[in-house]
Amino acid sequence: MGDVKESHNVLHEHINGLREQPKVSVIMSPISNRECLQELLNSHREKFMERNDAFEAMVMALNEETMATLRL
């Protein structure tokens, strides 16, 4: 849950930074802003994929344990 709050804070700070920049620089560098946000999203997607893999492994282990218990 802390990662979600941290992500929200980072994104919020980035958006506030964009608001404070002169409009001309924001218009002239949308690709740079997009790249920063894309990197942030990719980073979090990778973390969630790792957690999902770990969760799936735990579920499979629990299923195997349950099946072994039922066989006894």
What does this structure look like?
This protein is mainly α and 72 residues long. It has one domain. Helix content is 93%, strand content 0%. The protein contains three helices and no strands. The longest helix is centred in the last third of the chain and has 42 residues, at 30-71. The protein is rod-shaped. The mean pLDDT is 81.
Précis, in short:
The chain is 93% helix and 0% strand. It has 72 residues and is an all-alpha fold.
Structural class by sheet pairing and helices:
mainly alpha
| Cα Rg | 21 Å
Helix content bin: over 70%
What fraction of residues sit in β-strands? Answer: under 5%
Number of domains: 1
How is this fold's topology laid out?
Elements: H1 2-20, H2 23-28, H3 30-71
Please name the defining characteristics of this protein:
single chain, 72 residues, mainly alpha, 3 helices, rod-shaped
